[in-house]
Specification:
The protein is of the alpha+beta class. About 20% of the residues lie in helices and about 20% in strands. The protein has a single domain (about 1-95), classed as Ubiquitin-like (UB roll), CATH 3.10.20. The protein has a 5-stranded mixed sheet with strand order 2-1-5-3-4, with helices on one face. About 25% of the residues are buried.
């Protein structure tokens, strides 16, 4: 079971509280986690990644095991603690300002 933590605005959109738990077949990658998330919560389609290109949205970041995975290839396997459910896959809304 993969644990996913969403930022509050996306939790509100998906109508969930707390962590989301997903069944994801191996190999567990960013792409497979996001596919499973969008399949279960279709209202999130287009919020985390572009619907046509599947590239990460500019102000969305992905973290796992205290590492920023935002610029990693989407098909690279995620760390073992994510796959086992020991650690959550974090979706963070980045902030910008001047």
């Amino acid at each position: 079971m993969i644990r996913v933590v969403l930022p509050t605005p996306l939790k509100t959109l998906a109508r969930v509280q707390g962590e989301v738990q997903l069944e994801v077949e191996e190999p567990v990658t960013q792409a497979s986690v996001l596919d499973a998330l969008e399949l279960r919560y279709p209202m999130l389609c287009g919020t985390l990644r572009d619907q046509a290109t599947h590239k990460r949205r500019p102000f969305v970041r992905f973290f796992a095991c205290q590492q920023d995975l935002s610029h990693e290839p989407p098909d690279k396997p995620l760390p073992a603690p994510i796959v086992t459910g020991a650690e959550p896959f974090l979706v963070i809304g980045a902030m910008a300002g001047g």
